[in-house]
């Protein structure tokens, strides 16, 4: 089985769809687990010293925002006009990861279940599509899973859980939704979507940025989170998606690491090529 840009597909044509799907999913996991294809020295863009400085600056930023803005922002949100609160309340759920992961996951499984193609170019086009769908799924799922676990370990109380906007209430490892404020899962998803889809579709970045910003603001307006919660979620979403992109690039799956050390996307299949694959699949 061979697949362009790194994922194998193509079990026997007479195999049932579920078997083709299972075989291709196993092949995809095998490819993802393979070692990186570049030297270890090329894997990080910043020296350790710079990373430590960046971490310290980030920590100071979060402490300052928590002390100065968190309680004030939550209190101010309760005084906003009802129509504005309702607007953000209506859109805030669009930051749930399920709106992206279910369609992407089902699309990947559907592609994996397709019958094998005899045309070499069509095989490579379909492989490239599967790599990109897999990237989008993991770039959203990985930071989302990380936040789901970490926020319950941190145990920060959501605004007004104790009757007031007190950003200093923590109950670590309590594993309750009302003590899972930091980081914001919705914000994590929104900014992971911004990076993941923005990487593959650069022209959509402005729309994606507006989407991510609105979701982040909505979490504060509906008093589900403090500003530091959404900032933390944004940081994890962006960082997590970038790490997934780099993981793919180190294995030359849809991306490569250029001489500048930055991941670059391989050219994707054109619309004409995709239409050609569709015709091959629909042909009797």
Automatic annotation (TrEMBL):
What GO MF annotations does this protein's record show? hydrolase activity
What sequence ranges are listed for the domain Phosphatidic acid phosphatase type 2/haloperoxidase?
Answer: 133-245
In terms of SMART domains, this protein maps to: acidPPc (SM00014)
Q: Which SUPFAM superfamilies match?
A: Acid phosphatase/Vanadium-dependent haloperoxidase
Location (main, coarse) = membrane
Where is this protein localized, as stated in its record?
Cell membrane
Keywords in alphabetical order: Cell membrane, Hydrolase, Membrane, Transmembrane, Transmembrane helix
Q: Which PANTHER family match?
A: DECAPRENYLPHOSPHORYL-5-PHOSPHORIBOSE PHOSPHATASE RV3807C-RELATED, SPHINGOSINE-1-PHOSPHATE PHOSPHOHYDROLASE
* Protein name in the entry: Phosphatase PAP2 family protein
